[in-house]
Design brief:
Distance between the termini: 17 Å
Strand content: 5-15%
Oligomer: single chain
CATH class of the largest domain: Mainly Alpha
Low-confidence stretches: 1-7
Largest sheet: 2 strands, antiparallel
Shape: elongated
Length: 140
């Protein structure tokens, strides 16, 4: 996402109610496309969701503060108001607090014990830990 696109996102995920599973699926499509009509989303989701269901859910996501829309011709084009990365960080922080009493090491330990990691993923994790140990949490 470019800087101008990021600046258009106005909200913080920590100020919004959490997303449900299907809401997150819809948001993932909108984030991937940058903007989307209901039809765009329906075409990219599993076939078991009707157009009217997706429309209702997107309107609900707008009321929750995750989407905004603009009328273009006869249809609405929806845009996210919050960055995917912000939702990811907020969701992980909430999960860590709820399930692990805020203990990030317990969360990470649980993930590492329940997921099979490739050699490349292990190298990436080591690099993250090395950066954190040096006081630089961001990727170089």
């Amino acid at each position: 996402m470019s800087d101008p696109e990021r600046k258009q996102l106005q909200r913080s995920a920590s100020d919004l109610p959490p997303l449900g599973r299907r809401e997150l699926s819809i948001m993932n499509v909108v984030w991937e496309l940058g903007q989307a009509t209901v039809r765009d989303v329906v075409e990219r989701l599993p076939a078991d969701l009707a157009y009217t269901t997706v429309l209702t859910m997107m309107r609900h996501l707008e009321k929750k503060g995750y989407l905004t829309h603009e009328a273009v011709g006869k249809q609405y084009v929806y845009r996210p108001t919050v960055a995917r990365e912000d939702v990811q960080r907020t969701t992980v922080a909430q999960l860590t607090e709820r399930l692990f009493g805020g203990a990030a090491t317990e969360l990470i330990s649980t993930v590492l014990q329940t997921q099979e990691l490739t050699d490349e993923e292990v190298r990436e994790l080591r690099a993250v830990l090395d950066r954190l140990a040096k006081g630089s949490p961001k990727r170089e």
